[in-house]
């Protein structure tokens, strides 16, 4: 049997259920398990030593694992952020499928690229989101991050502005790339943006996957705003991980049913 895993500070059942559903659906002798590492270096060493085929990497480890892998695929190297590790006979290659997922969703939802963006967050996932936005053609943006070094560096890399707080800032597209609103976290009942910021926006995006209906997404729907949810991001990035681990591209129907099962 081939083992795949995830490493996350607050693991959810979504990835486990999604991948295992597809393994069963396609008759693959694979199994997927979620872990919270007590020592990240030892955990990655275990991937190599135990022959674990693939590993999903979540917050806050997306940047920390860079020093622990052998090769950075361009998808990860371009943004210094990793969400996937693939083990080929002890050689660990890092990828980032978050970037791909965000780009595909922007295209699928036909979000106009002339709109301005306001992104809250500056960590590993924020790097993927901002890179996807900029590469898709969104040239006007602001990064909001309390960490001036990280926030201003990310903003400068893509020609965006930086601000320490949202305050009275507004934009056509507002994006939450922080744990605010995440189930089980200290801010699970908090919206990442205030009502007036939501009201001024044309689109609202939240990358928090659990719950899919975060306080921000609920507030945006109530205000009549079109949304892209973290659950959508999670499905597309997980699909790309599945392909990297198995070499098999599931059908759109199989992906849909796996996502429905994972959310149930």
Folded structure, characterized:
This protein is of the alpha/beta class. The protein folds into 2 domains: 2-96 and 234-263, Rossmann fold; 110-225, NAD(P)-binding Rossmann-like Domain (Rossmann fold). Helices cover 40% and strands 19% of the residues. It is built from 10 helices and 12 strands. A 6-stranded mixed β-sheet has the order 2-1-3-5-6-4, with helices on both faces. Strands 9-8-7-10-11-12 form a 6-stranded parallel β-sheet, with helices on both faces. Strand 7, helix 5 (124-136) and strand 8 (141-144) form a beta-alpha-beta unit. Helix 4 (97-108) packs across helix 5. It is globular, with a radius of gyration of 18 Å. The mean pLDDT is 96.
Annotation keywords:
264 residues; alpha/beta; Rossmann fold; 2 domains; 6-stranded mixed sheet; 6-stranded parallel sheet; 12 strands; 19% strand
Give the DSSP E fraction (strand runs of 2 or more residues): 15-25%
Secondary-structure element pattern, one letter each: EHEHEEHEEHEHEHEEHEHEHH
Tell me the number of helical segments per DSSP (H or I, 4 or more residues long): 10
Separation of termini? 26 Å
Structural class: alpha/beta
Mean pLDDT: 96
The counted number of beta strands is 12
- Order of strands, main sheet, comes to 2-1-3-5-6-4
The CATH superfamily of the largest domain appears as Leucine Dehydrogenase, chain A, domain 1
Radius of gyration using CA atoms only? 18 Å
Number of domains: 2
Task: Tell me the overall shape.
Answer: globular
What is the fold named in CATH at topology level of the largest domain? Rossmann fold
- Percentage of residues assigned to helices: 25-40%
pLDDT < 50 runs, ≥5 residues: none
Q: Which CATH class of the largest domain applies here?
A: Alpha Beta
CATH architecture of the largest domain: 3-Layer(aba) Sandwich
Largest sheet descriptor: 6 strands, mixed
């Amino acid at each position: 049997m081939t083992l795949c895993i995830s490493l996350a500070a607050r693991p959810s059942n979504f990835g486990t259920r999604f991948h295992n559903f597809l393994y069963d659906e396609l008759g693959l002798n694979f199994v997927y398990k979620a872990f919270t590492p007590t020592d990240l270096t030892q955990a990655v060493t275990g991937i190599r030593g135990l022959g674990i085929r693939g590993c999903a990497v979540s917050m806050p480890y997306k940047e920390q694992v860079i020093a622990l892998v052998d090769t950075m695929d361009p998808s990860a190297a371009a943004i210094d952020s990793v969400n996937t590790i693939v083990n080929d006979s002890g050689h660990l290659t890092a990828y980032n499928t978050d970037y791909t997922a965000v780009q595909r969703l922007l295209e699928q939802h036909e979000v106009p690229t002339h709109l301005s963006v306001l992104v809250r967050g500056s960590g590993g996932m924020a790097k993927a989101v901002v890179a996807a936005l900029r590469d898709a053609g969104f040239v006007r943006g602001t990064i909001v991050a309390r960490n001036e070094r990280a926030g201003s560096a990310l903003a400068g890399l893509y020609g965006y502005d930086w601000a320490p707080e949202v305050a009275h800032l507004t934009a056509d597209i507002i994006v939450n790339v922080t744990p605010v609103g995440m189930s089980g976290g200290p801010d699970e009942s908090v919206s990442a943006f205030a009502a007036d910021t939501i009201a001024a926006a044309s689109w609202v995006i939240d990358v928090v996957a659990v719950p899919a209906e975060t306080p921000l997404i609920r507030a945006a729907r109530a205000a009549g705003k079109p949304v892209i949810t973290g659950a959508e991001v999670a499905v597309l990035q997980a699909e790309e991980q599945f392909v990297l681990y198995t070499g098999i591209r599931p059908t759109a129907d199989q992906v849909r049913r796996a996502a429905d099962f994972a959310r149930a």
